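For practice. Any example?
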Amino acid sequence: MLNGLLGKKVGMTQIFNEAGERVPVTVIQAGPVTVTQKKTKDHEGYDAVQVGYDELNEAKARKVTKALQGHFGENKATRHLHEFPVADIAAVEVGQSFDVTIFEKGQMVDVSGTSKGRGFAGVVKRHHFNGGAMSHGHRRGTRGTGSIGQSAWPSRVFKNKRMPGHFGNERVTILNLEVIEVRPELGVILVKGAIPGPSGRLVEIRKAVKAS
């Protein structure tokens, strides 16, 4: 049994629980995924399965390289490949499919995705710097970076110094989101709260590793 799936963020909405409370949820189109390869401790040094998600149509499948065509074998070519660790590798077979039924209502999951890209941004927006005073007499540097190092020592800028640059478009993981509903007929799950990225972005949903 897999401990996770690949899917796409559909968007956010809200539902009402049994107590009449409004709950914000994110709808995720999860799976199905097909096992394309098994990795074992004897051969690769660890137990895991590689799965494919989002099957390509016939025209695009013809453009897949010969190497990948051989890798997929009898399975259909997919847009995405991803690995998931498994505890019992013998229980999973190549060609086997998994869908949203691996999750249950009330279960906690971790969701990983790529955050929205917001282009070039300064330190105030990107790193939440306070900025300088905007009072009378302050000439410049209101939203500037300020000092980034000394001259004599260290005579360089330290690594990871917070500076202006590309904001967003980073891999983000949200831990311990509750599964509010599982709808196998639609192939979607509803999780409480927000997840990274815009609608349509690829996400990874897996059973929580730090669930309380």
About this structure: The two ends are 22 Å apart (CA to CA). The CA atoms of residues 117 and 168 lie 4 Å apart. The first strand starts at residue 4 and ends at 16. The mean pLDDT is 92.
